[in-house]
Structure formats: structure tokens, C-alpha cells
Amino acid sequence: MSIATSTEPQIRRGGVPWWARRRLILIVSLWVVPLALNVALNSYGPLTAESALRMAFATVAGQTIAIIGAVAALVVTITHRRPLAGIVFFGLVLMFVVAYALTAMEGAGVTILERLDLIAEVDQLN
Known about the structure:
Layout: H1 22-40, H2 49-79, H3 84-125
Helix pairs in contact: 1-2, 2-3
């Protein structure tokens, strides 16, 4: 008498690669990179037109990277076939990130105009 056994191979699912982890993408793109850009391109000396432009562009670049990171997190969520609740959650995160980033970019534009006016006033006084 023989016993019937199935010889189907065991399929082992590997973990998600480090670059495709949604939390890591969000942390790096929303916090680490914008903060590093602002620290690296901040003006630690007297305010000049060059330093004002550098700080404004650092803000805009950091917020652009934040938007791209939120889009990447949503794409990773969709491509890894996560449940609908996860897709909706990361869609909402994307909406909030875009709204905040556009507001921050607008603030950077206003700030650079104020700084350039201040620089022009100081130059006239000198």
C-alpha cells in the first residue's frame, strides 16, 4: 500500500527590497533630504542675493523631492498590490504632501522677495 503525497515545490516569498519600503521612502523624501538641503545651503554668513537665492532654491528642491517621494510611495503601494485601504491612505498622504509643498514653495517665493528687498535697502543705505 502506498501513501499519496504531493510534491509541489514550496514557494517562499522574499521580503520587499529596501528601496521599495514605503515608510523608508517617505521618511527619506519628506524629512531627511529636505532638511539636509536646507542645512547644506543655508546662509551662515551675511545675507546676500546669492545666499537668498540659494536658500529659496533649496526649499523648492526639497519640496519637489517630497512630492516625488510621496508619489513613489503611492506607486509602490499600487504595484505591490496592497489592499484598497493602503492605496487610499497613501493617496491622502500624497494630497497632503502636495498641498503643504505648494504652500512652502509659495512661502519661499515671498521670502526671497522680502530678502531681496532688504538687500536692496541695505545697499541704498550704504
